[in-house]
Every structure is written in C-alpha cells, then in structure tokens.
Design brief:
elongated; single chain
Length: about 130
C-alpha cells in the first residue's frame, strides 16, 4: 500500500503543477485544454490507485507518467501544437520528477502483480 501512496502523491504533484501552469497562462495556448485533462486524469487515477487494488490503476499510472513526460519532451525538442518550451524552472523539474516516479511506481506495481497472479491461477495440486 505504501508504493501505491507514493504513486498517488506523484500523480497529484504532476496534476497540481499542470493546474498551476494552466492558471499561469497556459490556458491561453493551444495546449491549454490538455493541461486541464491532465489535471483531471491525475486526480482520478490517484483515487483509483488508492481505492482499487487491480492492475488497471498501476497501468494507468505508468501510462500517465510516460504520456505526460513524453509530451513535454516533444514540446521541448520539436514543439507540440506550436508550443516550444525549455527544461528550466521549478515547475518543470517538479513535474518531470513526479512523472518519472509515476512510471517507476506503475511499472513496479505491474511487476509485483504479475508475480502474484500465476500463483493464484494455479489449480490445487492433488496427490494420488
């Protein structure tokens, strides 16, 4: 449960940074709506991660981190929807670190679940 808590905090930190940036002027850019979707998705996935012990929230956590970090890498290299950004500022690094944590936690939870699932799926052994 502790790992799920770390993942939920990372999701909420990333969502919080994107909400802050949306209020800080991103809402007037072409990527503004995506920032709000990111905020809602981060909160919803964080709740799911804490309340539902299933592989789906772990998968969504890793995917959220990868997609969000990937979008920033695209925006900082070739540009995304006309927006070019740089790797500078506290908000950028805070979000990037939180997204890496999301990827790692989601991956670890998926691996942990995979190692438990085959044991549960095995039929009971009978001795003759």
């Amino acid at each position: 449960m502790r790992l799920r808590g770390v993942g939920a905090v990372a999701l909420l930190v990333s969502a919080g940074v994107h909400l802050y940036l949306w209020f800080d002027g991103v809402r007037n850019q072409s990527v503004g709506p995506m920032f709000l979707i990111n905020v809602v998705a981060g909160v919803v996935i964080a709740i799911m991660l804490l309340r539902w012990e299933h592989w789906v929230p772990a998968f969504l956590t890793a995917g959220f981190g990868a997609a969000t970090l990937g979008a920033f890498i695209i925006a900082s290299t070739v540009g995304l929807l006309g927006v070019h950004t740089v790797w500078s500022g506290l908000s950028v690094w805070t979000a990037a670190i939180a997204e890496v944590v999301c990827i790692v936690v989601g991956g670890l939870l998926l691996l942990r679940g995979r190692s438990v699932a085959p044991q549960l799926a095995q039929p009971a052994k009978r001795h003759a």
